[in-house]
Amino acid sequence: MKTAIVTDSTAYLPKEVRERLGIRLIPLSVIFGEETYREEIDMTTDEFFAKVKQHPTLPTTSQPAVGEFVDLFTALREEGYDAVISIHLSSGISGTYQGAVTAGTMVDGLRVLAYDSEISCMAQGFYAMEAAEMAQAGRTPEEIIARLDEIKQTLRAYFMVDDLAHLQRGGRLTGAQAFIGGLLQIKPLLRFENKVIVPFEKIRTRKKAVKRIEELFAEDAEKGIPLKAAVIHANQPDEAGRWRDELSARYPHVEFFISYFGPVIATHVGEGALGLTWYQP
Ligand code: MYR
């Protein structure tokens, strides 16, 4: 049984990691006016932030077309794979997962198991990396899916944005009426619940929001069990690096990564967003 692991670009896994683990990528796109760019392929994250500053209109995003999934799955079948586990950003914020499900029914001779990570970014990347390591070790699709479900039990992610208007404009903020309208300067802590983004706690300053995430992280990190964690930032590499160094000095048993909100997710969270995700490996 040869199993391929696919994930979409919003996992923001560096190319070197994808190549080492054999993870195949399907990109989402950002659209500036008439121009469409597949993130991680046609446009880097630095290019995206530069373009946002000079383009007259704000970008929008789009999921991969079903035909692109069909092409990728067909190519994998031709390469001799029997099964594909296709891991995607939460079905509550994008139709990408559903696209993989639909395409899976259109390719004969290949078992396609679409997996809804119910999250995105490096948290989704953690799922893809574990799945790929297991696939390389010859584990069955069932064993891999069971492990992904287990990861879901311990995975946490909290993030904050500088300007809630981006999430509101894109329609990706649920249950936040109380925060909207005159209160956009508030920096609520956000998280995913039942596949959608909801405000977790109302917090007034970025500093306090960071402190609160640290407290939530400490609840798990202070148990002393090994964790993997990632600081995720939207064009704030220095702040993210400092935060990672502080946390890493406090919790040497935790393996820390730094990751980023790339073009598609940054379109919805805006520059300055910052988050922390972790799970028990
Ligand atoms: C599409 O056009 O299908 C893509 C829509 C992406 C919506 C992104 C909403 C923000 C997600 C924040 C993820 C934070 C993870 C820690």
Automatic annotation (TrEMBL):
Keywords: Lipid-binding. InterPro entries: DegV, DegV_C, DegV_domain_contain. PROSITE patterns: DEGV. Gene3D superfamilies: 3.30.1180.10, 3.40.50.10170. Pfam families: DegV. The keyword Cytoplasm does not apply. One of its GO terms (molecular function) is lipid binding. This is DegV family protein. It comes from Geobacillus thermodenitrificans (strain NG80-2).
